[in-house]
Amino acid sequence: MNIFFSGSIRGGRDDRDLYADLIEHLERHGTVLTEHVGTENVEQTEAAAGITDGEIHDQDVEWLRGADIVVAEVTTPSLGVGYELGRAAETGKPVCCLYRPDSAHELSAMIRGNDAFEVIEYRDLEGVESRLEEFVREYR
Ligand SMILES: O=c1[nH]c(=O)n([C@H]2C[C@H](O)[C@@H](COP(=O)(O)O)O2)cc1CO
């Protein structure tokens, strides 16, 4: 199973460690196409490799097309994550959005208000693992 994991990069990296943990968890169930979202210094690595924003966009959309499911951590608001979710919604792929309500960020109505998205509210990794697993198993 191919999994597209979406998480904030230029929107802010406060949750980077959590993304890495979620990706590690998801990798037990399939291939995470966007492993770099959880890695340190992702932008510096892309810049050093001479990858342009256009290439980042096109590669991302290609991975999105090849994904069976989409899992997004949406607590840190990100234009890129919102864009990916909008495109995913158009394809009808299963989308799961993970949100921590005890954060300072209110979840957008464009995410919570889309009935096609499964929104899981949680506090920490331990509290979300089994629900995430349920979601993944549903589409395996
Ligand atoms: O360097 C990047 N590489 C990359 O893959 N992305 C994709 C994956 C993330 O799920 C999403 C993050 O968007 P943003 O950078 O606007 O927070 O966009 C985004 C960037 C930077 O915008």
From TrEMBL:
EC class (word): hydrolase
GO biological process, one term: deoxyribonucleoside monophosphate catabolic process
TM regions (residue ranges): none
Reaction(s) catalysed by this chain's protein: a purine 2'-deoxyribonucleoside 5'-phosphate + H2O = a purine nucleobase + 2-deoxy-D-ribose 5-phosphate; a pyrimidine 2'-deoxyribonucleoside 5'-phosphate + H2O = a pyrimidine nucleobase + 2-deoxy-D-ribose 5-phosphate; 5-hydroxymethyl-dUMP + H2O = 5-hydroxymethyluracil + 2-deoxy-D-ribose 5-phosphate
SUPFAM superfamilies per record: N-(deoxy)ribosyltransferase-like
Entry-linked InterPro entries: 2'-dNMP_N-hydrolase, DNPH1, Nucleoside_deoxyribTrfase
Listed GO MF terms: 5-hydroxymethyl-dUMP N-hydrolase activity; identical protein binding; transferase activity
Residue numbers binding substrate: F4, F5, S6, G7, S8, I9, R10, Y19, E84, S108, A109, M110
Assigned EC number: 3.2.2.-
Keywords: Glycosidase, Hydrolase, Nucleotide metabolism, Transferase
Function summary: Catalyzes the cleavage of the N-glycosidic bond of deoxyribonucleoside 5'-monophosphates to yield deoxyribose 5-phosphate and a purine or pyrimidine base.
Subunit description: Monomer and homodimer.
Family named by the database record: Belongs to the 2'-deoxynucleoside 5'-phosphate N-hydrolase 1 family.
Family annotation (PANTHER family): 2'-DEOXYNUCLEOSIDE 5'-PHOSPHATE N-HYDROLASE 1
Record protein name field: Putative 2'-deoxynucleoside 5'-phosphate N-hydrolase 1
Organism: Natrarchaeobius chitinivorans
